Amino acid sequence: MNNMPKDLDKIKFELSEKLEFLKENAESEEEIEKLNNFASYLADKYSQIDDEDIKTEKLNRINTGLSYYQRFKKALEKNIDIDPGRLMGLTDGIFGMVMTLLVFGIALPELQITYYSTFLSFFSSLAPTIGVTVVSFVLLSSFWIYHHEFIKVNNLNIPYLWLNVFFLICISFVPFTTSLIGHYSHFFLSEVIFGINILLTIISFLLMYHYANSMHFLENAPSKKERNYVYQTFGMIMGLTIVVNLLDFHVSSYFIYLFLLVPVISTIRDIRFKMNE
């Protein structure tokens, strides 16, 4: 040990310090285990190298890589000085605007209707559009409730902001995909596009929730039971979305109204969860 070059001793010490720092700041037991395995791998692999110059060069590369990773992670996760209330205000504003746009998607006839029978005929032709608008409004309301119930943050960073923006992008497309079904319900592709829109919204919400929890941004850190409740609830909605699309294709387009079960399922699950707390 005393015969080893000083540079090698220094590199080993720095590597050890960096690995300890990463373990202290690890977000889960799984990450700590991976770091321990990596340390064991380094010890086993480089103990077999007799040439100290080669060993020094290789360990120095790893040390440099860890230094870059450490700085990158620190910069990426650094909190920014933005009031979380502003983000919540932006989110509420977009939800309100999107919900309003849903109704604007129900177009009135360009020609004036003078006969009652014509009005009835026109109104009946609007039934599919009105129906899917109600479905979309219910889904958006559910997402808004979930956002306010589960995502109450007291800190922010750039990745979280962009996750929230991606979630809002998905929300903003709902009026468009709703109009597609309203005007082109006879094309199965229109319902697939709507389903993809809802799936992406669910995925973006879960990513946002998971990241906020892992970064300790949530005001009240959820227990494992609470996290499972959130993941299972959205998993059920995701499954319902897939089932609706399959039934729309094989049976009838009216199965899109199964989405109206979302608030029912959510309410029942919420009551049962709170009863078992």
From TrEMBL:
Record key words, sorted: Ion channel, Ion transport, Membrane, Potassium, Potassium channel, Potassium transport, Transmembrane, Transmembrane helix, Transport
Location, primary (coarse class): membrane
Source organism, top-level taxon: Archaea
GO CC term (a single one): membrane
Membrane-crossing residue ranges in chain numbering: 87-108, 120-146, 158-181, 187-209, 229-247, 253-271
InterPro entries: TMEM175-like
Localization per Swiss-Prot or TrEMBL: Membrane
Membrane topology label: Multi-pass membrane protein
Catalysed transformations (reactions): K(+)(in) = K(+)(out)
A GO molecular-function annotation: potassium channel activity
Family per record: Belongs to the TMEM175 family.
This protein's name: Putative membrane protein
